[in-house]
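Propose amino acids for all 418 sites.
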């Protein structure tokens, strides 16, 4: 009985705290973090935009930078997505303007002036509130005054993000009751399921405040190096590399592409991989006026990089497969999607690790459509796990097929078949 009384008093105290925060913090958060306009974007913003910092450790001034775009539909009822861009070390801004957000950088020859922005009518904010966060520390505008904080890892990133989200809800308590989904792509295929599991475990153990966690989604996800390393057979099957290069790489690497061994294997693997940078976002985000509008603290980051691959990061989670298994077995919904032209994390490897879960199929392989056209293929398993390909999309899918991907998201979060 005494234990129940103590728990009751604790919950009442928490409720009073949240009521007070709703009255006071909500006003200050809106006023201090709101972005009224963006340099390079013509006219008023057609959505509610907020950006700033959430403290992870105030003693060391360890702060993660975020961008919040409220839903363009019904912010008070629509789901809340925490979006984690991959890398590790890629800024949330990359997700906002290249993948799932309501902004796009106009792709035109750079002439030394500020790159222009345009509106993306197929943003995921059409159906959800989305937080884009610069994580882990050293990514984007996130910073700390303590140098040891910059040594991070998968597991530390997850702990920091859990604390970030807890403190974010203190700033924005009006979203605490919204259905919460953890989302991301590429390397976040590791971070998303591990963070979702961390949150789920907290809920089970009585962590306060209680997040309204419903599930998670990952696109073109890094999951397990052995499953993901199908780039060579995929690229050959798609006609992206010649028969000669495929056979030479297969022989020199002995059919194992995850950890190239030998000089000839390395040379052949380099010939298979090619990359491309997003220069215009670099010029835009490093503009002094832009940083002022976004509420970036001066002197904290010397140079903004879309992807900072120089961060001190240790990959201490070798595989996220077991997290997918445990989360879906516990009733959390999962959407796994892949651009079918992605050679970085080929969908054939993603299909392989999903099959390894050995879940029964309840809706077998079939086409899914948008505007009457086939835009991919999907399969649904027990435990609310859905897999989908996005036809013609690369790494990452929403960058190439925004209209199709927002349709996919809308159907999935509405519990409708794709």
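Proposal:
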């Amino acid at each position: 009985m005494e234990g129940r009384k103590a728990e009751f008093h604790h919950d009442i105290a928490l409720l009073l705290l949240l009521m007070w925060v709703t009255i006071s913090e909500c006003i200050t958060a809106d006023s201090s973090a709101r972005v009224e306009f963006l340099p390079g974007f013509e006219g008023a913003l057609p959505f509610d935009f907020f950006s700033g910092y959430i403290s992870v450790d105030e003693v060391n001034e360890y702060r993660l930078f975020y961008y919040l775009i409220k839903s363009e539909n019904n912010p008070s009822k629509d789901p809340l997505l925490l979006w984690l861009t991959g890398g590790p070390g890629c800024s949330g801004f990359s997700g906002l303007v290249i993948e799932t957000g309501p902004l796009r950088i106009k792709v035109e020859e750079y002439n030394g002036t500020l790159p222009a922005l345009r509106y993306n009518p197929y943003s995921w904010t059409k159906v959800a509130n989305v937080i884009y966060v610069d994580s882990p520390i050293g990514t984007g505008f996130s910073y700390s005054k303590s140098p040891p904080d910059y040594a991070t890892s998968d597991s530390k990133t997850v702990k920091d993000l859990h604390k970030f989200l807890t403190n974010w809800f203190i700033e924005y308590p009006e979203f605490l009751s919204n259905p919460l989904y953890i989302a991301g792509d590429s390397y976040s295929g590791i971070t998303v399921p591990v963070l979702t599991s961390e949150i789920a475990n907290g809920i089970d153990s009585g962590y306060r405040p209680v997040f309204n966690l419903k599930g998670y989604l990952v696109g073109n996800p890094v999951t397990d190096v052995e499953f993901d390393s199908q780039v060579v057979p995929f690229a050959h099957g798609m006609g992206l590399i010649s028969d000669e290069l495929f056979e030479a790489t297969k022989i020199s690497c002995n059919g194992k592409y995850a950890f190239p061994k030998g000089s000839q294997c390395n040379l052949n693997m380099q010939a298979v991989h090619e990359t491309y940078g997003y220069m215009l976002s670099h010029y835009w985000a490093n503009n002094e006026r832009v940083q002022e509008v976004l509420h970036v603290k001066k002197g904290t980051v010397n140079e903004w990089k879309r992807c900072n691959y120089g961060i001190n990061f240790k990959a201490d989670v070798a595989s996220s497969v077991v997290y997918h298994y445990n989360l879906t077995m516990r009733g959390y919904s999962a959407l796994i999607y892949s651009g079918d032209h992605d050679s970085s994390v080929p969908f054939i490897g993603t299909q392989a690790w999903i099959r390894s879960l050995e879940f029964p199929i309840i809706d077998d392989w079939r086409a899914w459509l948008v505007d009457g056209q086939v835009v991919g293929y999907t399969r649904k398993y027990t435990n609310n796990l859905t897999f989908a390909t996005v036809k013609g999309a690369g790494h990452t899918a929403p960058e190439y097929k925004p209209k199709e991907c927002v349709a996919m998201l809308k159907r999935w979060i509405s519990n409708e078949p794709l």
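Residues 372 and 404 are 12 Å apart (CA to CA). DSSP finds 14 helices and 15 strands in the chain.
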